[in-house]
């Protein structure tokens, strides 16, 4: 299916080089490898990927949408979505701005923002799948223990696993002090996580073998309110301290939420029924750790608005050029047609 999306590469070059002085800025910050040649290559390849791979899947993604199997709790993504994700991973995009020691390319975050804008303009629903993975890498990088970074961060950076952010519950949206999800300490140092989270972006899908959920929950002796919230790593498939993936964890998708315009994005209800989890960061300090992830997501949502605005402009311009309406004030431009183009 042909796509009319064209990435605004020249506008992005102007913003990076003429407005921000990105190449000189990166040099001063110690990113000497982020030269103009490298940045230009990123822009060109990102444009090619989003125009030819993602944009053609936008319509089918919303028309077909994700499918939920009530019997198994599995979610099947729209045709072409999984293959597009593998192309994304094979191209090295999943680790573009992540540390090299965890499989990333170590480029500055600014170098990855044009890619994010292009993805969201081309196919917002698909873009929601890798969106939270980047936030999860930031939370693990800044708050995880060494073994947690090695076991969980590296597979996410390499695109073999994805990440989610599990905050909201049915009875509490923004007031997280009311959350009821429980975390019971176990003899082996793990925690048993029980509760239900809603509106979980990419909470279940068929892209990867494992999904790493970062879950806010409350310990038995936790103070009331937000001062008693802790953050836990709860993978779909159990993972040992050596990074080896084991049996299925007690994590299951209970339903798909219905969101207008992004039917191709799996927004899930996720049930934790005594699932094995690991504490990340200090006990009762989970909200501050989660904000590391949330701030990354907030920036990403801003880029979604930018990408959608660009796509809307391109669609409107194309429509206006084809639209015949009335006659030109300076005389008919196409007298053989019933009216002249608007522009």
Description:
The protein has a single domain, classed as Butyryl-CoA Dehydrogenase, subunit A, domain 2. The two termini are 27 Å apart. The strands form 3 sheets. Strands 3, 4, 5, 6, 7, 10 and 11 form a 7-stranded mixed β-sheet that branches. It has a two-stranded antiparallel sheet with strand order 1-2. The radius of gyration is 22 Å and the shape is globular. With 343 residues, the protein is of the alpha+beta class. Helix content is 40%, strand content 19%.
Q: Characteristics of this structure?
A:
19% strand; Butyryl-CoA Dehydrogenase, subunit A, domain 2; two-stranded antiparallel sheet; alpha+beta
Count of separate DSSP helical elements = 8
Radius of gyration: 22 Å
Distance from first to last alpha carbon: 27 Å
What name does CATH use for the topology? Butyryl-CoA Dehydrogenase, subunit A, domain 2
Helix share, percent: 40-55%
What sort of overall outline do the alpha carbons produce when their principal axes are compared?
globular
- Give the mean pLDDT: 94
Helix-strand topology string: HHHHEEHHHEEEEEEEEEH
Give the domain tally.
1
How much strand?
A: 15-25%
* CATH class value: Mainly Beta
Brief sketch in words of this structure:
With 343 residues, the chain is an alpha+beta fold. The chain has helices at residues 9-19, 22-28, 36-54, 58-64, 81-90, 109-143, 146-157, 286-322, and strands at 67-68, 75-76, 161-166, 182-185, 191-201, 210-217, 230-235, 237-239, 245-248, 251-256, 267-280.
């Amino acid at each position: 299916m042909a796509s009319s999306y064209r990435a605004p590469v020249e506008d992005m070059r102007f913003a990076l080089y003429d407005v921000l002085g990105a190449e000189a800025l990166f040099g001063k910050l110690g990113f000497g490898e982020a030269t103009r040649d490298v940045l230009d290559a990123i822009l060109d390849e990102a444009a090619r990927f989003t125009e030819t791979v993602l944009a053609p899947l936008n319509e089918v993604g919303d028309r077909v949408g994700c499918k939920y199997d009530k019997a198994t709790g599995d979610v099947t993504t729209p045709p072409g979505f999984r293959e597009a994700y593998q192309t994304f991973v094979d191209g090295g995009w999943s680790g573009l701005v992540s540390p090299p020691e965890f499989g990333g390319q170590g480029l500055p975050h600014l170098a990855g923002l044009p890619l994010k804008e292009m993805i969201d303009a081309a196919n917002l629903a698909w873009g929601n799948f890798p969106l939270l993975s980047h936030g999860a890498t930031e939370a693990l990088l800044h708050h995880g223990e060494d073994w947690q970074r090695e076991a969980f961060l590296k597979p996410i950076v390499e695109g073999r696993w994805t990440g989610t952010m599990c905050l909201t519950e049915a009875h509490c949206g923004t007031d997280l002090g009311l959350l009821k999800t429980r975390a019971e300490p176990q003899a082996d140092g793990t925690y048993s996580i029980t509760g239900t989270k809603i509106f979980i972006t990419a909470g279940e899908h068929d892209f990867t073998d494992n999904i790493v959920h970062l879950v806010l929950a409350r310990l038995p002796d936790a103070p009331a309110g937000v001062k008693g919230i802790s953050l836990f790593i709860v993978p779909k498939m159990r993972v040992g301290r050596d990074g080896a993936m084991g049996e299925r964890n007690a994590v299951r998708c209970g339903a798909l939420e219905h969101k207008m315009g992004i039917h191709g994005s799996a927004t899930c209800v996720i049930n934790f029924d005594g699932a094995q989890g690991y504490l990340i960061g200090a006990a009762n300090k989970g909200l501050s750790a989660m904000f590391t992830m949330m701030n990354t997501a907030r920036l990403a949502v801003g880029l979604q608005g930018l990408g959608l605005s660009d796509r809307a402009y391109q669609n409107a311009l194309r429509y206006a050029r084809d639209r015949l309406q009335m006659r030109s004030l300076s005389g008919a431009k196409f007298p053989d047609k019933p009216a002249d183009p608007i522009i």
